Amino acid sequence: MKIRSALLAASLSLVPAGAWAGLAISSQDGKQLQKAEATGVTPDSVSVIDLGKYPPRVIGSVNVPASMIGSPNAIVVSRSEKFAIVTAAQKVNPADPMKPLPDDRVSLIDLSDPAKPKLLQTVQAGPQASGVAMNKAENLVLVASRVDGAVTVFTLANNRLTRAGRVELGARSEVTDVVFSPDGRRAYVTAWSAPAVFELAVDGSKVTRTRQIATGRSSYGAVVTPDGNWLINTNVGGAMTGDDRTGTIAMVDLKSFKQVLSLPVGKTPEHATLSPDGKHLLVVLANGAAYTKTDPTYGKVRGILKIFAVGAGTLKEVASTGSCHWNQGAAWSDDGKLILAQCATERTIEVYRFDGKSLTRDDKAAIAFQSRPGSIATRHSR
Q1: Cα(235)–Cα(217) distance, rounded to whole angstroms?
Q2: What phi, psi does 133 have (nearest 5°)?
């Protein structure tokens, strides 16, 4: 193992600066307390990670409300990298810090100076604000709120978010995530309890519900391929039919709006994210790993990262590796060769290399945090 690490370090030292251009934005949650740990409440924060040099490093941070309970897609980064928007599904409960309360805050963060990210504005969406999406034009933002089963619509102009509407999807639907189609004319919303993926029509700032499709139980996160042809979403509770509760990935043909694939992938597939070119899908599996280091199963069961080659209605597994505990979101570098994966128990972000066939972790490159990483995104993530 030491020889392998040394060879990896040597090969990475030959990579020219700037080979992994771009920024990753990570949110950290300080409210998720565990009885087996002595750590108390720590600040929520958002950190800017420079992917232009190796190893990646935090170059700036700002304390804003954030949450790791909820969608790992609780951050969206504008294509221009001028803004990040972060939702907070929970806040500290003064009466009992062990039981956080639902939150509705949405923070607009200025990234014009990445080393000095600045909070520009805080607005309210629905309670337990979770997944967030921004269109490519950077003038419309959608926020899914789980408690009231709705999507709040905001316009973005002159460094300000302005509420422009609300789409009701059913109080008991427990919507978790939302993602735009590449052309911005449609959006897709996953719902934990419906269970369904809802399609929304987008006309300027007017957003309306159109149709829905059931892709599996406990639908959680979603992505749309860069060509706009395929919706891919995770289903934590498994397929719609049968007794098998192994988590699945589903694919929907957006031209016919029909499901073409339901693939079992493992326990608790909460996060799925596409490489910037859309050729590979990374799926993060919690896999029943322990939340605390004192748990008897700690070290015996770990989370899992899986990568699939994306075809026309097909997904083929090409790489898999054990990761960390209570893992959350993940993000790709611009060139698709570097992956950052969040570890809530360890309070770190792990760094992996992907060569098209295998995933290799560089333990020396891990990034440590005071609070638990919960969501992460780059400008390509949504």
Answers
A1: 6
A2: -140, 150
Contact 116, 161 (CB under 8 A): no
Radius of gyration of the chain (CA): 19
According to CATH, the superfamily of the domain at 2-377 is YVTN repeat-like/Quinoprotein amine dehydrogenase (2.130.10.10)
**Pairwise CA distance, residues 237 & 15, whole Å:** 41
Adjacent-strand bridge partners of 359: 354
Q: How far apart are CA 212 and CA 198, in angstroms?
A: 4
**pLDDT tens for each residue of 202-214:** 999 999 999 999 9
DSSP assignment of 189-207: EEETTTTEEEEEEEETTEE
Let me know the angle formed at the C-alpha of 112 by 22 and 382, rounded to the nearest 5 degrees: 50
Describe the strand order of the beta sheet including 75-77 as a list of residue ranges.
75-77, 83-87, 105-110, 118-124
The rounded Cα 40 to chain-centroid distance in angstroms is 25
| Stated pTM of the model | 0.93
Exposed / middle / buried, residue 165 (Cβ in 10 Å: 0-12, 13-18, 19+): middle
Q: Domain residue spans in the chain? A: 2-377
pLDDT tens-digit readout, 299-314: 899 999 999 999 999 9
